[in-house]
Amino acid sequence: MLKKDFKAVLVSMSGVRVYNQKLLQLGLTLPGFVDRSKVIASLPSLGLLTIAAHSPDNWAILYKELDAITEASIDDILNEAPDLIAFSSLTARINETYALADRFRQMGITVVMGGLHVSALPDEAMPHADSVIQGEGELIWPELLTDFQHNRLKPVYSSLTNKQYAYRVDCHKVPRYDLLDIDKYNRLTLQTTRGCPLDCVFCAASRTISSYKKKPIAQIDRELAAIFEVWQRPFIELADDNTFVDKNWSKELLRLFASYRMKWFTETDISIAQDDELLELLAASNCAQVLIGLETAQAMSLTGVDRNNWKLRQFDTYLKSIEKIQSYGISVNGCFILGFDTDTKETFSHTEQFIKASHLSEVQLTVLTPFPGTALYRQLKQQNRLLADTYWDKCTLFDVTFTPANFTVDELESSFQELMGSVYARKTVAERKRTFKQTLTNKITSTHA
Ligand code: SF4
What we know:
Number of helices: 17
CATH architecture of the largest domain: Alpha-Beta Horseshoe
Bound molecules: iron/sulfur cluster
Radius of gyration: 22 Å
Structural class: alpha/beta
Number of domains: 2
CATH topology of the largest domain: pyruvate-formate lyase- activating enzyme
Shape: globular
Strand content: 15-25%
Helix content: 25-40%
């Protein structure tokens, strides 16, 4: 191997802890809830693996994950004697990231930060980093490292304000999956699209980093091949916000997926239910599950959620669409948000009934959360309804961070806990799994009939 002149350690601040103690205690006994948090914790940071691929040849790159900050984990990084440390962090762990970054900088190590939170609030991050990457990092990273070598690092590099840094289809490289200790993961991530055109008011992911973009199918093929080099039978979770927006492109993607031996999962909107050919290709490509943001079990809460009320117009089709998608043998994980301004006490019992009637194979319940950079954040801030100026460690999706319209904070918390308790009760989870298994059996029987 060539001798490298410089070394960068890329640190992913993985794992999110729920603040609400009652929910946490409850969560420990909730199979669906615990399973899901384990899955999230075991995903590597694709953003860091991607910029790693764009490093100049004279840089050695290491990848580390910090689920918990311990003196041993800090020593582990320091022992590498890095010239530069780059962090990617979620909002819920940004305070820990800032504290750790401050510590490394006091030791004279250059710190760079990127990711969703600092892209939304670069000014907040700047006192904790020598340089902040706002938006997409592929084209910024090599320039930033070269600037570091020449002692001319800029405080902010932004693909949002400087379009020359925005990702283009001719600038992609295969993420450095080879940097991972592969035995630690039960899933690997692959990105096929970035952003989402629906623009929901609470969604940070859909536009903070980039507008909606698709990767060329040939590039996705190269990235899949790289995954198969490190893992023969992978389970792949797409790091997309909304994969099947462009149906023709999606069909090409699914034909490619069908040529690989893998199981996979992604997030989509419910429009896939209207395209039989796409559903057939989805089933044939071994898609295990799609996660769909249904958002609510009552239509009025969807008013104004996305730019053109598209989700509101789909609401009446929800039950039929879920049934249709699952009839292809694809499990649907339906996501619901509690705490909209139109939600009342009845919304909780209504949500429980809706979930039962839907026969969703899996369910995700979350509390409405105003992430920085979203329209929801701006609205609640303007209305003086945020519970604190910075409440980032409570941005877990399970903690209440604002004054709800029709409840006190305590009421929203306790109604949410109650709903979690019934939706994730062992018996109810088992019943959902049993019903979906029956759907699979019916599908096999009808295929062979
Ligand atoms: S559909 Fe999903 S990914 Fe798209 S903007 Fe809405 S919440 Fe975000």
